[in-house]
Amino acid sequence: MSRKPPERLVTMGRVVAPYGIKGWIKVQPFTRQQGDLLDFPLWQLGLDGTWQSRSVESAKVHGATVVAKLEGIADREQAAALQGMRIAVSRDDFPAPAADEIYWADLIGLKVVNVSGEVLGTVSRVFETGANDVLVVAEQEKGGRERLLPYVAPVILKVDAAGGMITVDWGMDY
């Protein structure tokens, strides 16, 4: 077990309960596919800004959850101590996205500018509605408002993750 700063970590789920008596945990994934967590052999577990690194010894999809056995967790009591912890993985461990794709985690923190050059704010989070994904864009001023921008081609004109900016066709008064 080691501590790792939360830089470039992407939260993928949380520990919801111990599972059985041999140190397994039950995890609620935050990913679209429960099995996505199985692609990462090293998880970071964190609570209140403190992170610990754990190797995944074994894991499998179990209904809408994932059950996992982590290195150093031998019994139900140790597993119960992890309850409520967030599970994150290093962004550097993600496979490279296709040329026309981007991970949600890479959208967070990008500045959003409209075609008139007006800064709408910064992407604070992303969520899905079923029809399309939505960017939550927060103004920088204290007490600034949030805008919800649909992540669809007529609105999102260009995403320049390396340059830290998204260009949109969206008015300041929308």
Textual characterization of the structure:
The strands form two sheets. The chain has a six-stranded antiparallel barrel. A six-stranded mixed sheet has the order 10-9-8-7-12-11. The protein is built from two helices and twelve strands, in the order E-E-E-E-E-H-E-H-E-E-E-E-E-E. The N and C termini lie far apart (49 Å). Helices cover 5% and strands 47% of the residues. The protein folds into two domains: 9-92, RimM (Elongation Factor Tu (Ef-tu), domain 3, Beta Barrel); 104-168, PRC-barrel domain (SH3 type barrels, Roll), CATH 2.30.30. It is elongated, with a radius of gyration of 19 Å. By secondary structure, the chain is mainly beta. A hairpin with a 7-residue loop joins strand 9 (133-138) and strand 10.
